[in-house]
Amino acid sequence: MVTLEERLDGTRLEGEELRNKVSKVWFAPVEDNPSKEDVAQKTLELYQAANFRSILEEGDLVAMKMHFGEKNNTGYIKPDYLHPLIKALKDAGVKPYLTDANTLYRGERSNSVDHLMQAYAHGFGPENMGIPVIIADGIRSKSYEEVPIDGVHFKSVKIANDILHSDVLFVLSHATGHGGTGLGAAIKNIGMGSASRSGKQNQHSDVKPRILREVCRACRLCIKWCPVDAISMVDGKAEIDESICYGCAECTATCQFGAIEVNWEGTSRALQEKMAEYAWGAVKDKRDKIACFTYLIHVTKLCDCIGRAQPAVIRDVGILASYDPVAIDQAAVDLLAEAANKDLFYDMWPENDYNAQLDHAERMGMGSRRYELITIGD
Ligand code: SF4
Ligand code: SF4
Q: Cys staple from 197: which of 50, 141, 177, 251, with CB 3.0 to 4.6 Å?
């Protein structure tokens, strides 16, 4: 098999250069359980410290890519965190809007109507935020563009049209663990989060879950969430029809009894690499037009797609900002490891080593794992 390194020709020298680069990451620490006002003020201070104003031109359409939180989830980035930042963007003369793309699994965000209503239910409506919410891939996720890339897994990726065609991308990520990728932060927010539903499906194509009959409690929750009706009850236990299942992995996160498992060996790495290639496709034409914020607040073992409240796995640490999605993910991992006194994400998901997404994103030329941390407000 041709390795990625062998495929890196002259066109990727930029990636080599980036690998040797030390990116700046700004960090605003917070107390445990900070007030919303404190987080909002620090978000603004990070915007100012990083001088994100410098990438904005009057009239720019600014996509603020985030995750509005599945119904009953409580970990998502709160609307109140964003008010001063949105005011600063408006003062700069640009046109910000909040956005995400539709999900693969059923839930409350798999089409734009439900997705908008869920965003509004969590407080992201225009009357509260002063800006619109636009679901970037159309009501049934058919509004996407094939972006050519030179990846190992993909030669083109399906990116939601509105994210692709915005002038500037603000990436607002909540750092969490993830059952398939180990870590969910900026790379995942961009890569999985900007993909159309078909693009999300393409990324999950290697995932093949199976149900442990002896553990299944027949609660039927996985049946409700499977987007293609691949699960049914057989002799009183859930069973997956492999001829229908396309590996979205949502059932694994849905089952609260641990009855659905995936043999992640070799699978998580491929999933993470595909995700990194999607992220690259979303940002490769926005290299100097991207600003990332990552919230290390109420960090949970699973992501905000989970439709229930989850306990935090570590005390709150702070907020990060960077122009570099790879560097900000590395800094998130490192700061949380320092707070936990262990490699938190690897400890939670050793079978899904998160390093795969960071390595691959760096190799693709998206950014650098080397960074300089600049703490503000000390
Ligand atoms: S969610 Fe888990 S316990 Fe419930 S039916 Fe599915 S496999 Fe069984
Ligand atoms: S059975 Fe397959 S398609 Fe259905 S939720 Fe699970 S992984 Fe996705």
A: 141
Query: What is the identity of the amino acid at 123?
Result: G
Provide the whole-model pTM.
0.87
Number of structural domains the chain divides into: 2
Report the separation in Å between the CA atom of 203 and the middle of ligand 2, taken as the mean of its atom positions.
13
Are 303 and 175 within 8 A, CB to CB?
no
For residue 248, the CA-to-ligand 1 centroid distance in Å is 16
Domain boundary among 262, 281, 297: 262
Report whether 278 contacts 144 (CB < 8 A).
no
**Residues 236 and 130 placed together within one structural domain of the fold:** no
For residue 244, the ligand closest to its alpha carbon is: 2
Ligand 1, CB within 6 Å, residue ranges = 211, 216-222, 238, 254-255, 257, 259-260
Q: Give the whole-angstrom CA distance, residue 223 versus residue 229.
A: 7
The residue length of the chain stands at 378
Range of the domain at 90: 4-203+266-375
* Residues in Cβ contact with 202 at an 8 Å cutoff, skipping those fewer than 6 apart: 154, 157, 158, 195, 274
Based on the fold, state whether residues 67 and 151 are members of the same structural domain.
yes
Question: Based on the domain organization, do 13 and 111 belong to the same domain?
Answer: yes
Residues 331 and 355 in one domain: yes
Ligand 1 mutation pick, 210, 217, 226, max ligand atoms within 8 A of CB: 217
Shared domain for 222 and 116, answered yes or no, is: no
Q: Are strands 133-135 and 95-100 parallel, antiparallel or unpaired?
A: parallel
* Residue with CA closest to ligand 1 atom 8: 216
Q: Residues enclosing ligand 2, CB less than 6 A?
A: 209, 226, 228, 230-231, 240, 245-251
Same domain (yes/no): 99, 165: yes
From the alpha carbon of 220, which atom of ligand 1 is closest? Answer: 5
Ligand nearest to the CA of 179: 2
Residues 101 and 167 in one domain: yes
- Residue-by-residue pLDDT tens, the chain, 378 positions: 333 343 333 333 355 565 578 999 999 999 999 999 999 999 999 999 999 999 999 999 999 999 999 999 999 999 999 999 999 999 999 999 999 999 887 778 889 999 999 999 999 999 999 999 999 999 998 999 999 999 999 999 999 999 999 999 999 999 999 988 999 999 999 999 999 988 998 998 888 889 999 999 999 999 998 888 999 999 999 999 988 998 887 788 788 898 998 877 778 999 999 999 999 999 999 988 999 999 999 999 999 988 889 999 999 999 999 999 999 999 999 999 999 999 999 999 999 999 999 999 999 999 999 999 999 986
